[in-house]
Amino acid sequence: MSPAYRTFGPTIALSIWIWVVGSITSIDAKLAERMDLSRKPAITIEDIKFASYRVLDVNPGVNGSFEIVSYKDVYGMMVDVEVGTPPQEVTLRLSGGSSTWIPRDINFGAPGGFNTSQRCRRVCSLIESYGGYIQNRSVTWEKVRGLLKPEEHVSLSHPIDSYEGQYLSDTFFWGDQSEKSPSQAYPYTIDDFLFLAADEFNSTGELGLGLLDFTGELGGFGGKEFLRRIVERYSTSGSLVMGFSVYYDAYDINSSEITFSTIDINKYQLPMVTYTWPPQRLVTGGGIMTASVGFSMNGTLKTALNNQPTIISLGQPTIGLPAQLLNTILKSVNAVESKVKDGLWSIECGKIKDVDLSLDIRFEGLNITLTAEDFMVKVPKPSNVVQEEGEGEENEDCRIFLESSEQNDDYGVATVYLGIPFLRKAYVWTDYQNNQTSIAKSKQRVTNSTLVPISSAGIFYTFGDQRYGSPDEEVRPLFGPSDYGPISTISDFSFDKPSMKMIIGATIAGAAVLTAVGVLVLVVLLGDRPEVPQVPPVPELGGAERCELNADHGWSEVVGSEGGKFQGSDDGEIVD
């Protein structure tokens, strides 16, 4: 072809084709990435039980007499875990402190591990009830690297409990036992998990999810370390935030959950308010300011305190209030001091439903109201209360889970702290990476879940500003489950998979676009191409014979014309 008949049509067509295919490939890649994220399991703590646990109270003997060992019952949210290899079962209570501590046997030579000396007289009943960690039975324990004095014992003491021991690391398992694999492994595992192995203790162990470090020894370990290990273990992209959400449902239904790096949009209603707190305030809940805390009786506001420094504590069984407000509430319901003398009060169970009382906690643009039934709860009668003559045979007691905030020195400077009764009515998200706490009103008795991953940029990046939403409005992230079709369950995915309709639709749409562009390019090329003059055919030479030669190796074909088959497995999978 002479230069007069050259055209750049094929080059343009090829460029357009490459651009279109590249765009669709990019979309497919993003879709595949989202699908890959959707296959990641949601990291949760479920099967959380509200229960009593025993605290040891030892009074020294007088004039050579034996010490008096007694117990009192305290309440909390309990979860079953396993530690070590082979696993050893332990029940821990969830805590807003930073340390996870587990009772340890230092092995005085008893065949069963825990000794039978006077020490065992104090603590063996706790071990029998909640389990313990026998260090020399595990083959995976190690000393903690990075501590200045790894051999040194650490002592921690709180108003309720105290413990002393060494920091160790070992394998840590948790999860729903009904979902155990045939190997009996828990769904979630953290290798080299850091905890304090307590040699001296007076209660059950605890799983700390807070940042508050009472000793200063850990310097970044504790609850934040636990979250960091979860993100490292289960986030391949590293884009998830170091945070968790808390949903404590009613005491009579076991649908409570803690979800890591995700928010369950089925469990709360708008609006949701978010507080940013100074990074040096290292406590669960961060230290927020409630606009007011008020007490109403028969629809009439009795007392209200404005602008109260407040802390949310996921492990506290009570709500802590200033003495002025607490005494007004107790007097109005004729509360009786508990015989346990632990600072809690009792009320006749039959009176609770008749009490028209509310505790109103107001944040900026959000009100959460607790009725009497939210913090006056029927519980088993404490084990150390002796039935007195003339009393009924009932083995249940109704306790008022309110106490003076001045009794709790562990949580810094705060006049109000909101524990388990508040968390039954509120949905709380705590972000240690961006120093934020988000609060919304929870939906009660919801068992289905849709989890949305929160990116490392924080909740605003994922949801936008939720302060102005209405309770009837559907919670919708800026991206996520609402784009993908049917809701998945918490045990399947961290958020919903793209539906098959979406995948088929995207494929058909892509094919349609490619076809349309191809036809358009063909029309343009045929319409703009200059007409090539007809050239007469070349005549055959006389006397020349046509002949076909067989190849020496049999037969030949153009590579790729036909007969090129991909190898496949029996079930149709492509095999490289």
UniProtKB/TrEMBL annotation:
Q: Which residues form the Peptidase A1 domain?
A: 77-440
Name the UniProt record assigns to this protein: Peptidase A1 domain-containing protein
- Record keywords: Transcription included? no
Alphabetized InterPro entries for the sequence: Aspartic_peptidase_A1, PEPTIDASE_A1, Peptidase_aspartic_dom_sf
Q: Which GO terms describe its biological process?
A: proteolysis
The region annotated as signal peptide is none
Domain of life of the native organism: Eukaryota
Tell me the Gene3D superfamilies matching this sequence.
Acid Proteases
Q: Where are the transmembrane segments?
A: 503-526
Q: Does the keyword Transmembrane apply?
A: yes
The organism encoding this protein is Orbilia oligospora (Nematode-trapping fungus)
The entry sums up its family as follows: Belongs to the peptidase A1 family.
Sample GO molecular function, one term: aspartic-type endopeptidase activity
Task: Name any one Pfam family assigned in the record.
Answer: Asp
Q: What keyword terms does UniProt attach to this protein?
A: Membrane, Transmembrane, Transmembrane helix
Region (Disordered): which ranges? 556-576
